[in-house]
Automatic annotation (TrEMBL):
Ranges of residues in domain AB hydrolase-1: 110-217
Annotated TM spans: 12-33
Family matches, as InterPro entries: AB_hydrolase_1 (IPR000073), AB_hydrolase_fold (IPR029058)
GO cellular component labels: endoplasmic reticulum membrane
Pfam family, any one: Abhydrolase_1
Protein name (Swiss-Prot/TrEMBL): AB hydrolase-1 domain-containing protein
Species in which this protein is naturally found: Cyclocybe aegerita (Black poplar mushroom)
GO molecular function: monoacylglycerol lipase activity; phosphatidylcholine lysophospholipase activity
């Protein structure tokens, strides 16, 4: 008897869960909710942030300028400019007006333009740790912005809007004397999508930044939806595949695409992609996909088997040969290095442009970029190690 009751109760919960799930998916089809679910910009962590006092979040006294950046469509973005450690330490006294030091800090050392992931603000502790790691191990000053609709910035987030915000931040550094080719762009998670779009746009305008670092990136939002697992084990939209056409419908309704994979052929800057193997939010296979996309134009093509189950023997042999040739060429171009207890590093150069893929064992989704080993690899790759 107890068993049957249990079964009955189980079915009831399953039905409730199913209804909630379908409700959630329907909500996501509505642009307003889709935007909120993707950007999570109304999650303002830390709560009641005091952006004017970065000291509260662990940064040294008067090391950080809290500033506003105006975008080309007249939104106002909240941002922090954090002086590099070597520059801050070189001052004999604590500065009384940080704004007077921006030009000198930019002239004295490297700069990282940082684009954060979804939810929370530039004051979030995991992000502050990135500014600290770049400031100390790279000796770099950091400009970190909050996109439109986030933190104390005006406006509502959108893909085009965030790309505009990124360009405004890039221009701010140029206006303060930094050469475009000396700016290192680093984007984490959603920020990697923003960096990819900015990278493609800069290339289109003939501008080559120092490099683009993609931390815990995704190949496209569509792929994230397909591979995302809540709590690491409940697939988000995979169950929809039992309803014919439902999966395709959800993908069609996707407004915010951030398709970095599509942007890859347009990006001409050097690129470093990094992903932790224990990232439960975005699987590290996304980074493999991006690295292979950068590599693809350098490898011989392989014919598609249009009818794989009725292939002729000659076609099969031809494809097998092509695959072997592609693999051999890949082995020739890509150098692979195992870093014991830390991870693996793959890289190749094409006409002087370097592309690097780092897979780390630790760091998960949020703390990948603060690992000293990774920051050092970033420094070596772009020649900015203190
Ligand atoms: C830009 O926005 C500000 C307020 O945020 C407003 O005062 C100003 O008139 C706007 N300028 C333009 C060109 O729309
Ligand atoms: C920090 O800057 C403020 C002005 O913004 C100044 O009043 C204060 O004295 C400075 N702090 C220190 C420790 O010098
Ligand atoms: C890449 O460049 C092509 C041709 O210039 C353009 O049509 C396309 O929109 C660009 N894609 C991205 C993602 O920038």
């Amino acid at each position: 008897m107890a068993g049957i009751t249990f079964l009955f109760t189980g079915q009831k919960y399953l039905a409730i869960f199913g209804a909630l799930y379908l409700g959630l998916v329907c909500l996501l089809a509505i642009p307003f909710f889709q935007g909120h679910a993707l950007y999570l910009n109304s999650v303002r962590i830390p709560l009641f942030s005091d952006y004017a006092t970065p000291e509260k979040y662990g940064l040294a006294p008067n090391r950080t300028l809290n500033l506003k950046i105006r975008t080309s469509d007249n939104e106002t973005l909240g941002a922090w400019f954090v002086l590099s450690d070597p520059y801050y330490r070189s001052l004999s006294t604590i500065p009384s007006d940080v704004s007077k030091h921006v030009k000198f800090a930019l002239a004295a050392g490297p700069v990282v333009l940082f684009f954060h992931g979804n939810a929370a603000t530039r004051a979030f502790s995991a992000r502050v740790r990135h500014y600290q790691a770049f400031g100390s191990r790279l000796g770099a000053s950091v400009l970190a912005i909050d996109y439109r609709g986030f933190a104390d910035s005006t406006g509502t987030p959108s893909e085009a809007g965030l790309t505009r915000d990124a360009k405004a931040a890039f221009n701010w550094l140029v206006e303060h004397g930094k050469k475009p080719e000396e700016i290192l762009i680093a984007g984490h998670s959603l920020g990697s999508g923003v960096s990819g779009q900015l990278g493609a746009e800069l290339s289109r305008d003939g501008i080559t930044p120092k490099g683009i670092v993609l931390l815990s990136p995704f190949s496209s939002i569509r792929e994230v939806l397909e591979t995302y697992q809540m709590f690491g084990f409940i697939p988000l939209i995979k169950p929809l595949s039992v309803i014919p056409g439902a999966l395709r419908l959800v993908q069609r309704l996707l407004i915010h695409r951030f398709d970095t994979l599509q942007a890859v052929p347009n990006i001409t800057a050097p690129v470093l992609i990094a992903h932790a193997e224990n990232d439960w939010d975005i699987p590290h296979s996304h980074s493999d996909v991006l690295f292979e996309a950068f590599l693809d134009p350098l490898l011989p093509p392989v014919d598609l088997a249009l009818e794989p189950f009725s292939m002729s023997e000659s076609l099969w042999l031809k494809i097998t040969e092509q695959q072997a040739a592609r693999k051999a060429k890949r082995g020739e171009i890509v150098s692979t290095q195992t870093l014991p207890k830390f991870g693996t590093l793959q890289s190749f150069s094409d006409k002087g442009r370097k592309v690097v893929l780092v897979k780390t064992l630790a760091g998960a989704h949020d703390y990948l970029g603060v690992q000293e080993g990774l920051v050092d690899i970033i420094g070596k790759t772009f020649g900015i190690l203190v």
